[in-house]
Description:
This protein is 18% helix and 23% strand. The protein is built from ten helices and twelve strands. The strands form two sheets. Strands 3, 4, 7, 8, 9, 11 and 12 form a seven-stranded mixed sheet that branches. A five-stranded mixed sheet has the order 2-1-10-5-6. Bound molecules: the ligand Nc1nc2c(c(=O)[nH]1)N[C@H]1C(S)=C(S)[C@@H](COP(=O)(O)O)O[C@H]1N2 and molybdenum atom. The site of molybdenum atom has 6 residues, from loops.
Amino acid sequence: xxxxxxxxxxxxxxxxxxxxxxxxxxxxxxxxxxxxxxxxxxxxxxxxxxxxxxxxxxxxxxxxxxxxxxxxxxxxxxxxxxxxxxxxxxxxxxxxxxxxxxxxxxxxxxxxxxxxxxxxxxxxxxxxxxxxxxxxxxxxxxxxxxxxxxxxxxxxxxxxxxxxxxxxxxxxxxxxxxxxxxxxxxxxxxxxxxxxxxxxxxxxxxxxxxxxxxxxxxxxxxxxxxxxxxxxxxxxxxxxxxxxxxxxxxxxxxxxxxxxxxxxxxxxxxxxxxxxxxxxxxxxxxxxxxxxxxxxxxxxxxxxxxxxxxxxxxxxxxxxxx
Length: 322
Ligand SMILES: Nc1nc2c(c(=O)[nH]1)N[C@H]1C(S)=C(S)[C@@H](COP(=O)(O)O)O[C@H]1N2
Ligand SMILES: [Mo]
């Protein structure tokens, strides 16, 4: 059986623990590369974040780009959302089974004011903003997308994270009734992601509720998804139902599956290749009807947001903490 077939075994067919363990071993074998000391992993402690501040003006320069927008049709039909299938067109073709209202988000962990909030309450009092951000997938394609949403920091601050809140962990809904892809163990559901607290509080980190001025389509992570433009696309977790402030680096979906290939930080970095392919260039999904991909362009450190975010990683070995 090929790895791909193994990954597509529906969960209901995995009846005993041994089969499940075998599959884990298979995935681990896949992930085993040369022992390079790549340790962007959940059980090692990275250096503490530097104490840096950027001015609001510096931050604002990252909020927009004049680059050609990716067409709405392409943003909404070329997707990664494994809860709705592993093919790029699976999510947009899937029946609209996700119930996006009412939608609640549970916020807890190391904070003074935990709570379960209805999405509309979570966003109450915040003014929606438009941000034009690049999104670069680890697979080597990228888009330029006009998002609507609110700064993540403005939402997080309301829960008053305490001094032990060193990281923020995010979780996607995992309901097999609403998400057909959950029947396949392509990922250890639910999908999980995480940020260091200073990354989460950075002015560029954004919670999107829409794109192109319309509510987020199901395939793009309705009704609420993260957008972290300086990191590979998989950090931008979709359809969020839980946010937790935690002391230890949280486990994340892709790291859990292939720790050797996907580190916790996952900053876009042309100098650190994915073990199976180069990250030096990308193909922009640029938006002509006749051609999905434009010519290759160089990938920029931090996806072009170095002026805004490089200081967060001052003194860190980004090959080690990839
Ligand atoms: N819950 C969840 N979030 C997810 C994914 C996923 O499979 N499930 N895929 C990620 C990946 S790999 C990318 S590149 C982006 C794609 O976002 P888009 O489809 O809106 O362009 O979503 C990310 N967020
Ligand atoms: Mo991705």
